[in-house]
Design goal:
The protein is α/β, with parallel strands linked by helices and about 220 residues long. The protein has one domain: Alpha-Beta Barrel (TIM Barrel). It has eight helices and eight strands, in the order E-H-E-H-E-H-E-H-E-H-E-H-E-H-E-H. The chain has helices at about 10-20, 40-45, 65-75, 85-95, 110-115, 140-150, 165-170, 195-220; strands at about 1-5, 25-30, 55-60, 75-80, 100-105, 120-125, 155-160, 175-180. It has an eight-stranded parallel beta barrel with strand order 1-2-3-4-5-6-7-8. Strand 6 (about 120-125), helix 6 (about 140-150) and strand 7 (about 155-160) form a beta-alpha-beta unit. Helix 3 packs parallel to helix 4. It is globular, with a radius of gyration of 17 Å.
Length: about 220
């Protein structure tokens, strides 16, 4: 399993993830307390460990603007948290070479089933909220995800309230990657917490090592 630390917005955040490198680092370009400008994100990404893939988070932004930002910041992937249609995703694919991750909030079984059929490269499951597009700190509906998992054709990220206290339970959902934002922040919400990031990264790496060891034993 992989892990993404999202909502990086300072050089201090970059230093922390470089010290305990996740697989992905997320930068929010939508309206949020974690929002960064394209120019500042570009500056931060140049200081990011090159082995960490950068992901930009957008909400109902014009496809042309998303593509321009992706090119400016050299984003590996763009994460769509709005109401972007399949036609929009097709347009964006033609405009930029970044991978596309589509957010699907765990609103209902029918809603999720309809929205996981997508041209995007991956799905991100997040908590359904009437007031926010993400970063709520509230857990997504894991039971619903388990119900639809058999219909999945794309890899999926699991977001929504993941922290050091429940990430081990998240392994049972078997996502492609865990996506953590508020669960990696300081108590006051001002920047990433080094100890929380360390524990999250250690938990994922330890899980992967145990899985590898188990697979080797089965092979032998």
């Amino acid at each position: 399993m992989r892990i993404k630390i999202c909502g990086l917005k300072s050089e201090s955040d970059i230093e922390i993830v470089n010290k305990f490198p996740p697989d992905y680092a997320g930068f929010v370009f939508a309206e949020s307390k974690r929002k960064v400008s394209a120019n500042f994100a570009k500056e931060l990404i140049t200081k990011l460990n090159p082995e960490i893939k950068s992901v930009g988070v957008f909400v109902n932004e014009a496809a042309k603007t998303v593509a321009e930002t992706a090119k400016t910041c050299n984003l590996y992937a763009v994460q769509l948290h709005g109401d972007e249609s399949e036609a929009y995703i097709s347009e964006l694919k033609n405009l930029c070479g970044a991978k596309i991750i589509k957010c699907v909030r765990t609103k209902s079984y029918d809603y999720v089933l309809q929205n996981i059929r997508t041209k995007a490269d991956a799905i991100l499951f997040d908590t359904f909220s009437k007031t926010a597009r993400g970063g709520t700190g509230e857990r997504a509906d894991w039971e619903l995800i388990l119900q639809v998992r058999g219909n999945m054709e794309k890899p999926f990220f699991l977001a929504g309230g993941i922290s050091e206290t429940n990430i081990c339970a998240a392994f049972e959902i078997n996502p492609y990657a865990a996506d953590v934002s508020s669960g990696a922040e300081k108590a006051n919400g001002e920047g990433k917490d080094e100890e929380k990031v360390r524990k999250l990264i250690y938990a994922v790496r330890n899980f992967n090592q145990q899985a590898a060891n188990a697979a080797e034993k089965r092979f032998l």
